[in-house]
Amino acid sequence: MVIFTETKRSMLVYLRLFKESFSFALNALRNNKLRTFLSLLGVTVGIFSIIAVLAAVDSLDRNIKDSLDGLDKNTIYLTKYSFGPTQVPRWKRERYPQVEYDDFEFVRRNIADIEASAYVIFGGGETIRYQAETLTNVEVTPISEGIYTIDNLKISQGRFYSELESETGAPVIVLGYTLAENLFGEDVPMGKQIRVYGRKLTVIGVLDKYGDGLGDSPDVKAFVPANFVRQFRNGGADGLPGAVVIKPKAGVDIAAFESVLRQKFRVYRGLKADEEDDFFVNKLSGLVAAVDSIIGVMNGIGWMISLFSLLVGGFGIANIMFVSVKERTNLIGIQKSLGAKNRFILFQFLFEATILAVVGGLVGLGLVWILTFVASGMANDFEFVLSPKNMLLGFSLSTVIGLISGVLPALRASRLDPVEAIRTGM
């Protein structure tokens, strides 16, 4: 019982100590408004820089991941190009043969455990015309009907082209949401004829609205059967580059699937055992890993740049606290001569530094929140997010900076000899 009473009494003493130290710190900050403002400014800029960079990178990462959510990360692109870094020299890659439609037919008929496959031709921007409307540099993708399943495309009006239309190269086209709006306005697009490649194509479908994402949004794309384009554009070694897109069945061992695909395609191309592959097997999971790597680098660079701002803020607080100790040396001597303990003086200055840093951090967080709110309103279909994790990080960083910046000045103040302090202050 005696031990409990002593513990309670000790806690009350410390609570009173904290309260009085906190009151002294607040009064000191109120009495030096300009100096307090300048100290706040340094921490505010530092916290704002770090959290703004992290919020921007997190928002970019989230929007990219959201745009890839509808895609199977195991989707494979069989082509002469590598989607990531490779040790194969460029001159050797340029000699690789193009992946053509015959290669697609071989893969489709000879590789097991494929849920869907498609042949795509990589092309540039095209001009689309409808009556008086002309859209230039539109990404028109020649691709077989399997892409509808692979990319999990959704149709808002009409339909996607069928396997028969794809194989016969029917002159049909499916438009992205924004593309259809720009061409037809309030009119119904289905059944209308537009000019692409200098030829007439019939609009049979319009995609759902997707919004911005990784690369060009489907909203501003168009899809046509690959065999339609093959009728008038050359393939082969010197023709348009192509790729076979493959979506394996769910639950398949991807490593084994890739190994079988690679081995059978090598045999199909007549490669000997000692010869290197003349093609690349690219997976979307590799693209996701590359995106994560880039996001990590961006985070690192942002931290390096922002920490300099935060260090400047910390040094500013430390400098102000040393000045404050010197100005109040006489007061410290009087307090100690009246019985103030060292820890009272220590807490007084630590609280002052911490309050400066925390308030500066909160102002910085407030500015980032306003920035994300305004930026989200200005950017169509791109949401800037200030996550609770980043807010907690900003608050924690500002608190730590305040404590670190105030330790040395607080220790110096608490160790002053009362007689010398009064004499020096006078």
From TrEMBL:
Instruction: Tell me the ranges covered by the ABC3 transporter permease C-terminal domain, including all copies.
Output: 304-418
- Membrane topology (UniProt): Multi-pass membrane protein
Naming one, the record's GO cellular component terms include:
plasma membrane
Tell me the GO molecular function terms: transmembrane transporter activity
Instruction: Give the domain of life.
Output: Bacteria
Q: Where is it located?
A: Cell membrane
| Residues spanning the membrane | 37-57, 301-323, 344-371, 391-411
What keywords tag this UniProt record? Cell membrane, Membrane, Transmembrane, Transmembrane helix
Asked whether the UniProt record includes Heme among its keywords, one would answer no
Q: Which residues form the MacB-like periplasmic core domain?
A: 36-263
Family label? Belongs to the ABC-4 integral membrane protein family.
* Protein name per the record: Putative ABC transport system permease protein
The protein's organism comes out as: Winogradskyella jejuensis
